[in-house]
Amino acid sequence: xxxxxxxxxxISKTYKLPSGSIKVxxxxxxxxxxxxxxxxxxxxxxxxxxxxxxLGTLDKPDKSPDTSINFASVGELTKLSENxxxxxxxxxxxxxxxxxxxxxxxxxxxxxxxxxxxxxxxNPQAKERAIALLEAVGLGERLAHKPLELSGxxxxxxxxxRALINSPELILADEPTGNLDPATGDSILDILFSLSSKLPxxxxxxxxxxxxxxxxxxxxxxxKCDRILTLEKGVLN
Length: 237
Ligand SMILES: Nc1ncnc2c1ncn2[C@@H]1O[C@H](COP(=O)(O)OP(=O)(O)O)[C@@H](O)[C@H]1O
Ligand SMILES: [Mg+2]
What we know:
alpha/beta, Rossmann fold, six-stranded mixed β-sheet, four-stranded antiparallel β-sheet, 31% helix, 26% strand, globular, binds adenosine-5'-diphosphate, binds magnesium ion
């Protein structure tokens, strides 16, 4: 476990609907090493978002005695309370979604600094770090702007900066370029890759670079990762 950031075993997920049940994930396992970049590809509807949400504790796997999600620095997650899981997400995981999920009424500095508010021990320098991150993603001239005053690509750069604010150990990105034109999408991924490896330099914190798990439909983005896993029939291979 020592060089792993996350080790998930025997994850299944069944959605129970009035019209019947569908088993979306069927006993998959995954290990992610510290600093590793892993791509997940697979057809639409194959369960990629469900898998990412479960690994990030936003959703629960089916109950089974074999199932475990171990987060290296925390331990087993599946039995944690909702409050502990929320704290874990804020402290250790950065999320990037296809549709940005920014707060429209806040300026972009406050958006980026927001996950710091969820920490038990808040960083008094969070605003300075948010500004440094926004400068690093090329938005240093737009600090007073609100999300809807920015383009889609710019909003996603804000979301990338927000994912990095608490120096996470793992970044989960669900089709982060899915709403963007190819060139803008490429630039977002370049920023995500280069910033996550430079992260220890931002704000002077000495932390290991985070691992990155990215769902993508774009082959050349997947090929930039250390490993490509395909989700098919509920299993990752
Ligand atoms: N909350 C839900 N309730 C019921 N079915 C769901 C729910 N979320 C996803 N699904 C179903 O699970 C399957 C996988 O969805 P998803 O994880 O979003 O796939 P992907 O991200 O690969 O496109 C789809 O058939 C979808 O309709
Ligand atoms: Mg999806």
